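User: Before I run my own analysis I want an independent prediction to cross-check against. Here's the chain; please return only the structure tokens and, at the end, one sentence I can use as a sanity check.
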Amino acid sequence: MSAEPRPPTELAGLPAWLYPAGFWVGVALLAVGVVVPDLAWVGVVWVAGVPVLAAVWVALAGWRHDRRLSVAALLALAGLGLVVVVRQWL
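Assistant: Structure tokens:
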């Protein structure tokens, strides 16, 4: 009575719903920004933040399953942080 293995629903440590949900929320926020231009920055920040959210998700949720992938996500976040710091100096 062994259960059949479930098909993989994740790609590179991400749940299958994360990017599509982030995309459609971003589309809605950008559409609101077209109607109310003062709120356009919210859509832009959301669209830029989805990859950051994905990297945080992979780093935290996948630590026990695939440490190399989690370390790569942490390095990507550190690189992004370094870009932000160096950009302030320029």
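Sanity check: Helices lie at 18-35, 40-61, 67-89.
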